[in-house]
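Methods, example record. To illustrate the input and output format used throughout this study, we show the complete record for Cell division ATP-binding protein FtsE. The sequence lines were provided to the predictor; the line carrying C-alpha cells was produced by it.
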Amino acid sequence: MSETVLELKNVSIFQGDSMVLSDVNFEMKKGDFVYLIGKTGSGKSSFMKTLYGDLELTEGEGHIVDFNLRTLKENDIPFLRRRLGIVFQDFKLLPDRTVNSNLEFVLKATGWTDKNAISERIEKVLDKVAMKTKGFKFPHELSGGEQQRIAIARALLNDPELILADEPTGNLDPQTSIEVMEVLQEINKNGNTILMATHDYALLLRYPSKTLKRDENKVYEVVQRKATS
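The corresponding predicted structure is encoded as:
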C-alpha cells in the first residue's frame, strides 16, 4: 500500500482575514506527481505556504510528512522543511555565492559537517539536474533555466519526502520551461514525490498527470490520463 505523504480534510486556507480556499480535500501518495492549476493570483502560493508552515492552518485537518499542520509549532517548522524540498518561481539563490557555495550553505544550515560528504552530496544533486560542470559559477552567470535547475538541485539536497514547486516555470520562456519540466519529470520517475503549482495549461497537455484545479475558492481534482509513449 502506498504511503500517504500529504492529506487535507475539509481545509480552508486564509491569507490574513481573507479566505483563499475552502473545503479542500486531497490526498497525495509517495511517488505521485500532482499539479495545482489556477490563474495567477488565485491562491496557489497561499496553498503552498500553508503546506510548508508559512501560513497557519486554522480550519480543517492537514498532515504532511508526519507533521500535523493544525498543531504545528514555530519551532517545528525548520524540522518540517528539512523533510520538504521547496522550489520557488524566482529561484532565491544567494547572489554573492557560487553554485557550490549556495548548496553547501544549505547543507551546513541543516546539520551537515563532514566536508567529503558535503562535496559528494553536492556533486550528486548537480548531476541529477545536468549541472555538474556549473558549480564554480555565480547565479548571474547562469541563464534563468540553469538557475532553476540549481534551485531544484537545492531542493533535493536532504532527500525530501515531498517537493513543493511553486510556479517553477513562471519566469521562464516556453522552451526553457520544457527543459525544467523534463528535469522534474525525471526526478519523479526516480522516486521523488512532487506537487507543482502552475498557471501554464500547456505543460499539463504535454506532461499529463493528476491535477487539482483552483476555481471559485474551491479545489477540484481533474482526472487526466498519463501520456503513453
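Annotations derived from this record:
The CA atoms of residues 126 and 132 lie 5 Å apart.
The helical segments are 44-51, 77-82, 99-109, 115-128, 144-156, 174-189, 201-206.
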